[in-house]
Amino acid sequence: MTMNDTFLKACRGEKTDYTPMWLMRQAGRYLPEYQKVRGSVSFLELCKSPELCVEVTLQPIDILGVDAAILFSDILIPMEAMGLPLEFHEGRGPVFPKTVRDRAALDRLIVPDPGETMGFVMETIRLLRKELRVPLIGFAGAPFTCATYLIEGGSSKVFWETKKMMYTAPELFHGLMEKITETTSRYLLAQARAGAQALQLFDSWAGILAPADFAEFALPYAKRIIADLQQTGLPIIYFANNGATLLEYSAASGADVIGLDWRINIGDAIKRVGNRAVQGNIDPFALLLPKEKLKERIKRLLDDAREAKGHIFNLGHGIHQFTPPEQARFAVDTVHELSSR
Amino acid sequence: MTMNDTFLKACRGEKTDYTPMWLMRQAGRYLPEYQKVRGSVSFLELCKSPELCVEVTLQPIDILGVDAAILFSDILIPMEAMGLPLEFHEGRGPVFPKTVRDRAALDRLIVPDPGETMGFVMETIRLLRKELRVPLIGFAGAPFTCATYLIEGGSSKVFWETKKMMYTAPELFHGLMEKITETTSRYLLAQARAGAQALQLFDSWAGILAPADFAEFALPYAKRIIADLQQTGLPIIYFANNGATLLEYSAASGADVIGLDWRINIGDAIKRVGNRAVQGNIDPFALLLPKEKLKERIKRLLDDAREAKGHIFNLGHGIHQFTPPEQARFAVDTVHELSSR
Question: How far is B277 from chain A (nearest CA, A)?
Fold first, then answer.
């Protein structure tokens, strides 16, 4: 089996024959093949069944022709392992019936042994490595994002409880961040040992923070994890969603690759992140454009990204469930064709 | 009656004795006095009762000591006047049971005469001007933001229908924007004639757009309204929420004042908007900080804004319903005290 290492090279800023591409949430609901698997199990059951995780992780590789696989899992799996029961409600997303809003709840959280409590993730990684001919990305939620779920008890529109804790009980907030950080470091190190070839930290809710608050309440913890991971030698990707005003901080996280959502011109972002590779950043809904227009947009993006130290083409956010898979396939083919050197 | 014109001077970039302040949604649910009025009428009834609108508009002026009043109303009032029934559901926000997703629905929309269909707004303005000793801000939603509500049928998390129309039926989308733009221009001109002393365009959802899409689908329409309003001689404020990457475009809108949400450092924003005044931008939830810390944060913001052509202190978004009014009052007093020249 020949390994397609274009993605890893781009992460490291090495020359590649073409711009590699993968899609956030490429294993997901827009694929009928995924829906079929999900038809027989709940989302959490799926996350905890290595064979099924392998199946859905592999689906988009051939269907779309992407240059990397990403472990099928959820950022809240390690939060559940810290001792908080997790539920997924159809149409409402993740729910933690018990939240962390006081010292007693914080004290009850454990820092779990990842091998013992999340062995199914490591097993998925080991099985995938036997099958894959593209690199496998492992991942975790960044501590700030994970903390919002534990504090709010699920998703939120305004994150009142999170900010209330930050502003009125900062010691409690930092205490929670410490525990999540330790958990996340151990979890990602375990993924690396199991065979992950790159690691991405998703900071999905970083964008709700003013830059000064990001620097005080979120960045130091992401930084610490990235420092811990450097011993693995693997490329690290840090993605602060809606983080256009946080880019200089994101670059200071120490990550090799900075993920970009679609709200910023990639050329402007590249100037700001300095000597780092970038990943992104087409609007996921732009996959709906008629093919000629989509091609034009991809060309413009590739042109704008020319000065990048390395560029991994991706969406600026997860692919939407109603996206026709053939449009995603067309985008991948077009990126490969237009960037061929 | 002496008029406090500090706010108007700051909008025009003239020297002021101190930094003026008002709060987005200052007439709202965080005030027990407002809750009392709302207890006896629905939200829409309130919007359509000039006497009650006057009462709630006036409440924060004395309670908080702010330097401007903003008309109590809703950005969707003129959308209803275009012919689409509007409902407000408790806990869910605005709902348009009929949406605009095809040519027939677009053709049914009218461009209403604001005096005839929204006379209650003009009456509110006329009544307020007799009472107020601070300037009165009139407002409307910017066309892009209004369009999202008509297309989605209410609020949305991902704006799938809006972007689907933009990307797959751009002529329909632009047709809708044309009609909304014409309606909004007429509506704001009528507010000016009734006595509004400044006009704000709220582009609450501009931040979901990639910069190139904002330039193509949203900005031209905001620009056209602002050009129409220039005949009034009133200061125009344009606020593109979550628009840190759109600031150069916002400045090109022609507005005198650029509103800023809390996600960007105000000093960085000032460098980017050039010769315009700015309005903002403390995180609304920072009003929860202990007084000493809140004061420090206000001081930092005032320092960072020193190079502004003009600065109106405001929150980066609407005040949250659970904010203690005395904290808001403390913020206003602190801004006045620390900025006194």
Answer: 20
B-facing residues of A in 151-170 (CB < 8 A) are 158-160, 163-164, 167-168
Q: Check: CB of residue B150 under 8 Å from CB of residue B99.
A: yes
CB contact under 8 A, A167 and B211: no
User: What are residue B237's DSSP bridge partners?
Assistant: B200, B257
- CB contact under 8 Å between A242 and B245, yes or no, is no
Search chain B and give the residue with CA nearest A155.
B157
Triad B329, B205, A27: Cα angle to 5°: 120
The answer as to whether A1 is a domain residue is: no
Catalytic residue at B133? no
Q: Is A38 on the interface with B (CB under 8 A)?
A: no
> Which structural domain, as residue segments, surrounds residue A161?
6-339
pTM value is: 0.97
CATH number at residue B100: 3.20.20.210
* ipTM for the whole complex: 0.96
B159 contacts on A by Cβ (under 8 Å): 285
Tell me if A285 is assigned to some domain: yes
Helix (H) / strand (E) element for B317: namely none
Chosen from A163, A263, A287 to mutate, greatest number of chain B CBs within 10 A? A263
Under 8 Å CB-to-CB from B141, ≥6 apart: which residues?
B75, B76, B78, B79, B184, B201, B202, B203, B204
Q: Does A175 touch chain B (CB under 8 A)?
A: no
Is residue B269 within 8 A of residue B311, CB to CB? The reply is: no
**Amino acid, res. B71:** L
- The reply to whether B1 falls in a domain is no
What's the total number of domains in chain B?
A: 1
What is chain B's pLDDT, residue by residue, as a tens digit (341 residues)? Answer: 679 999 999 999 999 999 999 999 999 999 999 999 999 999 999 999 999 999 999 999 999 999 999 999 999 999 999 999 999 988 789 999 999 999 999 999 999 999 999 999 999 999 999 999 999 999 999 999 999 999 999 999 999 999 999 999 999 999 999 999 999 999 999 999 999 999 999 999 999 999 999 999 999 999 999 999 999 999 999 999 999 999 999 999 999 999 999 999 999 999 999 999 999 999 999 999 999 999 999 999 999 999 999 999 999 999 999 999 999 999 999 999 999 98
CA dihedral angle for residue B142, residue B144, residue B149, residue B155, rounded to 10 degrees: -90
